[in-house]
């Protein structure tokens, strides 16, 4: 299972302001890192690759890190 062709261009970069859904509400924060290898981040094992990257983001509200697939993020307006 891969991402749609338009998603494979790595849509986010460190410093981008993004938002995502979390526990029924919208949270916003900043992309801190693009993850392109299998690694540990935000307290969990992340299965990412260059073809299917994931993004470590920092919540503006809590300061905590989370890792999301690109389809879970939206650029903040």
From TrEMBL:
Chain positions covered by the region annotation Disordered: 1-77
Matching Pfam families: Hva1_TUDOR (PF11160)
Biased composition (Basic and acidic residues): 48-77
Gene3D superfamilies: 2.30.30.1060
Residues covered by the Hypervirulence associated protein TUDOR domain: 15-73
InterPro entries, alphabetized: Hva1_TUDOR (IPR021331)
Protein name, UniProt field: Hypervirulence associated protein TUDOR domain-containing protein
Species for this entry: Lentzea albida
């Amino acid at each position: 299972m891969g991402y749609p062709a338009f998603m494979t261009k790595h849509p986010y970069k460190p410093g981008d302001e993004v938002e995502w859904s979390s526990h029924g509400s919208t949270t916003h924060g900043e992309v801190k890192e693009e993850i392109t290898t299998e690694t540990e981040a935000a307290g969990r094992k992340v299965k990412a690759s260059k073809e299917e990257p994931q993004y470590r983001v920092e919540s503006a509200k809590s300061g905590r890190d989370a890792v999301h697939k690109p389809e879970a993020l939206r650029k903040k307006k």
